[in-house]
C-alpha cells in the first residue's frame, strides 16, 4: 500500500487519525498556524488511544499542490510550485516519542525562517509515523472472523498541516466554466495571488440578486498561485453567476458571470 494513499485519508481528516490494529493514536488539532509578524511556539497533542505502547517519529515534509497526497489542483507556474515550502524552517520537539496506552504528549513546533520572505502564505506538513519494531511489523497479526491471520506490514502515518502568513491577505479570483462528458458544470477557480483561500463558492442564475439563494454551494480550498476545478453536479448552462466568500452565509468577496 502506498503510504501517500494512506495519508490522503486527510489531510482533510486532519483532526484525528486512528491507526489500524491494536496501535491507535490521535492528533489534535490537525492544523498549526503562524503569523510571521509575531512568531510564537505552537503545539499539538498526540494521544495513544490503543492498548499497546506506540513509538512515533515526526518529520517536516512538503507536498506540492499537484502531489498525489494533496490533489489540490495544479500550479499556475510549475517552476514556482514549491516557493511556499517552509519545511526546512520548522523545529519540532520532541521528534521521536514513545507513548504508553492512554498516555498523551504535547509536541512543540517553532518556525525559524532561514531567509527573508515576501508577503504571502507558506506551508508544510508534519508527517507522524509509527516506528516499526525489530520484526519489521507495526502491529501483530490480526485474526479475521474467517480465522485467517493478516500481517500488517505497512507504515502507519498521518499529518498535521502547518500554515504561516506574511502580511495581510488580498483575495482575487479568475474563473473558467466548462462541462464534463455527463454535461455537468465544472467551475475552475484560478488563484493568481500569494494567499491561500479557504471559503465557499455559490453558483447562481445570471439574473440573480444578492438575496437569491444559490443553486448550489461548493467548498473551496485554494492554494496560492494555483487553479482548481470544482464539479458542481449542476447541468451545464450557457451562463451562471459565481459569488464567493469566507462564510457561506456571506458570499461577499466577489461576483462574476461565467460563460461556457
TrEMBL record:
InterPro entries named among the record's database cross-references: Ig-like_fold
Protein's name according to its UniProt entry: Pili assembly chaperone N-terminal domain-containing protein
Organism (species): SAR324 cluster bacterium
Amino acid at each position: 500500500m502506498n503510504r501517500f494513499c494512506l495519508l490522503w485519508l486527510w489531510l482533510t481528516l486532519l483532526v484525528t487519525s486512528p491507526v489500524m490494529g491494536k496501535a491507535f493514536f490521535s492528533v489534535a488539532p490537525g492544523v498549526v498556524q503562524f503569523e510571521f509578524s509575531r512568531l510564537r511556539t505552537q503545539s499539538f497533542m498526540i494521544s495513544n488511544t490503543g492498548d499497546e505502547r506506540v513509538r512515533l517519529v515526526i518529520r517536516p515534509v512538503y507536498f506540492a499542490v499537484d502531489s498525489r497526497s494533496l490533489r489540490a489542483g495544479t500550479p499556475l507556474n510549475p517552476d514556482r510550485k514549491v516557493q511556499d515550502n517552509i519545511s526546512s524552517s520548522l523545529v519540532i520537539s520532541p521528534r521521536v516519542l514513545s507513548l504508553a496506552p492512554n498516555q498523551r504528549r504535547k509536541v512543540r513546533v517553532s518556525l525559524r525562517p532561514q531567509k527573508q520572505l515576501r508577503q504571502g502564505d507558506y506551508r508544510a506538513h508534519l508527517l507522524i509515523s509509527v516506528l516499526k519494531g525489530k520484526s519489521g511489523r507495526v502491529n501483530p497479526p490480526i485474526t479475521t472472523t474467517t480465522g485467517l491471520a493478516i500481517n500488517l506490514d505497512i507504515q502507519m502515518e498521518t499529518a498535521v498541516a502547518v500554515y504561516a502568513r506574511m502580511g495581510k491577505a488580498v483575495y482575487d479570483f479568475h474563473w473558467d466554466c466548462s462541462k464534463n462528458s455527463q454535461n455537468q458544470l465544472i467551475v475552475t477557480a484560478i488563484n493568481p495571488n500569494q494567499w491561500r483561500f479557504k471559503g465557499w463558492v455559490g453558483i447562481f442564475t445570471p439574473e440573480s440578486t444578492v438575496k437569491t439563494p444559490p443553486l448550489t454551494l461548493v467548498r473551496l480550498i485554494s492554494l496560492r498561485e494555483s487553479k482548481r476545478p470544482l464539479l458542481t453536479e449542476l447541468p451545464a448552462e450557457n451562463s451562471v453567476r459565481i459569488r464567493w466568500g469566507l462564510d457561506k452565509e456571506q458570499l461577499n468577496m466577489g461576483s462574476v458571470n461565467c460563460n461556457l
